[in-house]
Amino acid sequence: MFALNALRTAIRVQSALSPSAAAIRALSTATAASAGSSAAVPDVSKLSFNTLLVSKPTANVGLVTLNRPKALNALCDDLMSELNTALEHFHADPTVGAIVITGSERAFAAGADIKEMQPLTYSKCVNTNFLAHWTRVAESRKPILAAVNGFALGGGCELAMMCDIIYAGEKAQFGQPEILLGTIPGAGGTQRLTQAVGKSKAMEIVLTGDKYSAQEMERAGLVARVYPVETLVEEVVKKASKIASLSKPVVQLCKEAVNASYEMTLKEGTHFERRLFHSTFGLKDRAEGMTAFVEKRGAKFTDE
Ligand code: CO8
């Protein structure tokens, strides 16, 4: 069992600088170091954030823990900017093959920060293109797994849906309550949710603003698997570590092919899939995987 809490505490570095600035500075230093020498790996312990904890619970997994406990991890602009920075860090780290995003046992995230949004006007939203930089998670090349305990509401549910796989603790609650606030979902709650659970269920969720259990959302197809609350993060890190141990280019192609199903017709999608499948025959890892099977041994992938 991972000593996650001890690890999180140990890697949190307090800084007198503005945490975002400190994080960005540390990231640029780490990235520059890694560009200078292919052996240099950006050091996660150099990052410090206001609203997140970051760590590497295994050598090949990056873990981001949303950390605004008093606000139930409400997604403020600062948190989303820091999340982008943390993701950039893990993308720059070649040893990381998969990323896990989690929150606390009480809340994954209770939505976008309503107190921050309350004074916004239409012109401000349009002029600043509000939420435009909140979708970085969905653009990740590396697989991202959500480990959801507690509330995943509004933007919290949308953030989970931007991830590639959603795992839930058995007391997790999902919902899109924006309608109760006189607004509508703004980061995929009407789109990704409908793709995941179908029109009728998605309509019920967004039109009532009700909360739904992890078990119901697993049955509906939103959640891949439900775990006990206390072991959720550990189990998800194990899944992420397994994915990260496979061929990175093949994992990436696989993810790209699944995501293409959102955008393409069946004919286009299966054609795209077949072409990507053909392309794996240009990889050493494809030769190694099949040879290892024939020789009855474990495959040793080199990401080539
Ligand atoms: N924003 C800001 N603060 C919040 C939020 C939030 N979304 N949710 C909870 N908090 C704060 C509360 O204000 C409270 O703070 P304080 O103690 O200072 O008053 C603290 O967290 C604890 O909350 P409660 O006392 O309400 O705790 P309860 O256990 O009684 O209730 C609930 C928990 C049910 C989660 C309740 O807090 C709640 O209903 N929260 C709001 C949920 C919601 O409506 N979410 C949707 C927000 S709109 C949105 O997400 C738009 C998405 C846009 C795109 C986002 C892209 C990623």
The top level CATH class name of the largest domain: Alpha Beta
Question: Any idea what the CATH architecture of the largest domain is?
Answer: Alpha-Beta Complex
One letter per element, helices H and strands E, the order comes to HHEEHEEHHEEHEEHHEHEHHHH
Bound molecules: octanoyl-coenzyme A
Shape: globular
Provide a descriptive summary of the structure in words.
There is one protein chain. The chain is α/β, with parallel strands linked by helices and 304 residues long. The protein starts with a helix and ends in a 10-residue tail after the last helix. It is globular. The chain is built from 13 helices and 10 strands. The chain has helices at residues 4-11, 19-36, 77-92, 114-117, 122-127, 155-162, 192-197, 199-208, 214-220, 232-244, 248-263, 266-279, 284-294, and strands at 52-58, 61-66, 98-102, 107-109, 144-148, 151-153, 165-169, 173-175, 212-213, 225-227. Strands 1-2-3-5-7-10 form a 6-stranded mixed sheet, sandwiched between helices. A 4-stranded mixed sheet has the order 4-6-8-9. The chain has 2 domains: 48-244, 2-enoyl-CoA Hydratase, Chain A, domain 1 (Alpha-Beta Complex); 248-295, Lyase 2-enoyl-coa Hydratase, Chain  A, domain 2. The longest helix has 18 residues, at 19-36. Residues 71-72, 74-75, 110-115, 131, 134, 151, 153-155, 158-159, 177-178, 181, 185-187 line the site of octanoyl-coenzyme A.
